[in-house]
Amino acid sequence: MTKMIKKYYPEKVLETYLHIAKKLEADEKYAQAEEYYITAGEWKVAVNMYRNLDSWEDAYRVAKTKGNDISAKQIAYLWAKSVGGDSAVKLLNKFGLLENAIDYAAENCAFDFAFELARSTMKNKMPDIHLKYAMFLEDESKFKEAEAEFIQANRPKEAVLMYVHNQDWESAQRVAEAHDKDSVADVLIGQARFAFERGEFQKAESLLLRAERADLAVKYYKEASMWDEALRVCKDYTPNRLMELQEEYEGEASHDGSRTCSNSTARLPTRKKAGNTRRPSTDTCKSLPPLPRITTSSRSVG
């Protein structure tokens, strides 16, 4: 029959082969069906036929010989996922695909399987899986669960940034104090900036003083043209910079013609009051960058 079709209806040859393959598959003549599927140029259908039969070895064989390397790896991954446990690890090791399979699982949100594969023989991959899972949970707005995963990934600062991005200052402070002391000041500074932008000046000042960043309080007040407040904070906490600030204020007042130095309540101190000054912080101002919204982690995973 196929010879006649080739001779008289060559345009229907592949369609005929496919029809025969489906009939053979229905009759459970799978090896013959495979042959006709491949002849019809439908090797993927043959692979799926074997997958549906749980005949993974045959599915892998067809994908490997008739498809490409990527297809073979995908079938090996699905095969391993179907068996699970130690058998999956052994199978993937046999093909030299264990690490690739772990990465593939994590990137495709199959986190349980990724953890399952990594726990036994590749524990070094665990932090990376926790990090990707954390970013996935963050995208799902499951912040408490994301926090736990960030901490297990040894990336508590990412949890702090997550909460800062969502203006959950209490949670940001809690995580910073418990797991990342270096971020405590950053949280206070971020909260202070937020408060200052809302006009809560005293609250912002208090937060900056807790962070030992009186210099930022002066800076924020100065940028808002609140010179009396800037001079007051500078006099109380960074007196060594008061003369410079006073001169800057006088120059600003002279330029505007609307303010005079005599209106300022701050004056250069004649002596230092014991215990009333703090050493200015020498740390560089650490600005909290806006948390990028991701993908498995506009934030850097590395």
UniProtKB/TrEMBL annotation:
Residue ranges constituting the IF140/IFT172/WDR19 TPR domain according to the UniProt record: 17-177
Native organism taxonomy: Eukaryota, Metazoa, Ecdysozoa, Arthropoda, Chelicerata
Key word Cytoplasm present: no
Top-rank taxon, per record: Eukaryota
A GO CC annotation given for this chain: ciliary basal body
Transmembrane segments: none
Keyword Repeat: yes
The protein's name: IF140/IFT172/WDR19 TPR domain-containing protein
Species whose genome carries this gene: Oedothorax gibbosus
Pfam families, per database record: TPR_IF140-IFT172 (PF24762)
